[in-house]
Amino acid sequence: MLTDIEIAQSVIPKNISEIARAAGIEEKYVEQYGRVKAKIDLSLLEDKKNAPDGKLILVTAITPTPAGEGKTTTTIGLADGMRRIGKNVTVALREPSLGPVFGVKGGAAGGGYAQVIPMEDINLHFTGDFHAIGAANNLLAAMLDNHIYQGNALGIDVRRISWKRCVDMNDRQLRFVTNGLGGRFNGVPREDGYDITVASEIMAVLCLAASVDDLKVRLARMVVAYTYDGKPVTAGDLKATGAMAALLKDALKPNLVQTLEGTPAIVHGGPFANIAHGCNSVIATKNALKISDYVVTEAGFGADLGAEKFLDIKCRAAGLTPSAVVIVATVRALKMHGGLAKTELSSENLTALERGVPNLLRHVSNIKNVYKLPSVVAINRFPTDTDAEIEFIIEKCRELGVNVVLSTVWAEGGKGGEELAREVVRLCEEEKGNFTFAYDLNTTIEEKIKALVCRVYGGSSVRILPAAAKEIDTLRALGYDKLPICVAKTQYSFSDDPTKLGAPCDFELTVKGVRVSAGAGFVVVLTGDIMTMPGLPKIPAAEKIDVDSSGKITGLF
Question: Which residues are catalytic?
Answer without folding.
Answer: 71, 73, 94, 105, 273, 301, 382, 410
